[in-house]
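Following up on my earlier thread - several people asked me to post the actual chain instead of describing it. Fair enough. Here it is, all 180 residues.
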Amino acid sequence: MKKIFLVLIAFSLSIYTFSSSFNSQTNKGIEQSKKDSTLFRSYKFITLSDAEKILEKPVHLRDSLYKFSSGHLIYKLNYVANYKDSTSKGLLYFEFEQWPDSATTKHLYQVLKTQQEKIGVVTPLKNLGDEAYLMKDVMNYPFLLIRKGRKFFKFQVSYITNDTSLNELTKVAKKIVETH
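Reply from S.P.:
Thanks for posting it. Predicted structure:
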C-alpha cells in the first residue's frame, strides 16, 4: 500500500512539473508572438502608392492578414484597382513569409519553382534576394517569388491591362527585399 501511495505522489509531482513547464513554455510562446507581432506591424511592405504605380490605376486595400504560428509568420496584402465600371479589374497580391530556418525556405522554393515550371514559363531573376524567379501563366499574369534567407516574398498581378507595369513590380519588389 505504501508503494502505491509513493507511486501516486511521484506521478502527481511529475504531472504538476510537466504542467508548470508546459504553461511556462506556452506563456513564453504567447509573449514571443506578441513581440513578433509588434515588430512585424512596424514593417513596411507594399504601400498604396507602390500598388498604384504597379497597376497604374488608383487602388484600395481590399484585405490584409497577419498570422504567426509555430515560428511561421505570414503577412498578406491584396490591392484592387478602382474602376468606374464593374467589368474592369486589376489585382495585386503580396505575401511575406518567414520560416524558422533557411533550409525550409530553400526546399519550399525548389518545390514551388518545379510546380510553376509545369504551368508557365519561369525566368530566373538576378540581384533579388538569394534566389528569385518570374513566372507568367497561360493568362500572362506575372508571379514573382523571391527567397532571402528564411523569408519569402511573393507578388502576383491578376487581370493585367496594357497599363500594368512589370517594371514597377520589379522595382517595388527589389526595394522591399532590400529593406527586409
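Residues 43 and 76 are 12 Å apart (CA to CA). That should answer part of your original question.
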